Amino acid sequence: MKQLKEPYLLYVGNAYPHKNLERLISAFKIVLQKQPELYLVLVGKIDYFYERLQDFVKELGLEKNVIFTGYVSDSELSWLYTHGLAYVFPSLSEGFGLPGLEAMTHSLPVISSNKEPLPEIYGEAALYFNPEDINEMAHAILQIVQSKEVREKLKKVGRVKVKKYSWDRCAKQTLEVYKSVLKI
């Protein structure tokens, strides 16, 4: 991983169609016109959907700037979160959005889709865009890339926000619900 070129944007997860990675790559192509030194790193097990995405990247001529890592170990993933410029989450629908919170634990600014429940989960700790609008997505990415002030604000707010979501807290709250239901 240490040979990875910086600066880079990071996405972690699968490449199912609702993850909206084709639009992310299209938006990234727009961003490259103003930031040609930027890279997009996509982390996820290479499967049918990632293979389709690799073909799409080739069609757009972006092989130099879009990097597919395939599966990475936990330590490599931590390194990627720590060295990235921002985490991008372009999903059209999500259940919860753990990767964005994981990025926040590594002080990585988050750029996210404005589709629910992501704004409810991330609050002011992310910069939002309409995931169906590649120009709006590109604009949000450029805001992060071009403004250290915006990145630092999101890092700071993200570090506070992520404390709200701890496994210990979740376990304690779940236990309290069980106790109340069972009247223990």
Task: Chart the SSEs and their pairings.
Blueprint: E1 8-12, H1 21-32, E2 39-43, H2 48-60, E3 66-70, H3 74-83, E4 86-89, H4 98-105, E5 110-113, H5 118-122, E6 126-129, H6 134-146, H7 148-161, H8 167-182
Parallel strand pairs: 1-2, 1-4, 2-3, 4-5, 5-6
Helix pairs in contact: 1-2, 1-6
In short:
This protein is α/β, with parallel strands linked by helices and 184 residues long.
H and E order: EHEHEHEHEHEHHH
Outline: globular
Radius of gyration: 17 Å
Enumerate how many helices there are, as a single number. Answer: 8
Can you tell me the number of structural domains?
1
Kindly report the CATH topology: Rossmann fold
Widest β-sheet, arrangement of strands: 3-2-1-4-5-6
* Secondary structure: number of strands: 6
Low-confidence stretches: none
Instruction: Average the pLDDT over all residues and give the rounded result.
Output: 92
The CATH architecture would be 3-Layer(aba) Sandwich
According to CATH, the homologous superfamily is: Glycogen Phosphorylase B
Main sheet?
6 strands, parallel
Structural description of this entry:
It is a single chain. The chain is α/β, with parallel strands linked by helices and 184 residues long. The chain has helices at residues 21-32, 48-60, 74-83, 98-105, 118-122, 134-146, 148-161, 167-182; strands at residues 8-12, 39-43, 66-70, 86-89, 110-113, 126-129. It has a single domain (8-182), classed as 3-Layer(aba) Sandwich (Rossmann fold). Strands 3-2-1-4-5-6 form a six-stranded parallel sheet, with helices on both faces. Helix 2 links the parallel strand 2 (39-43) and strand 3. It is globular, with a radius of gyration of 17 Å.
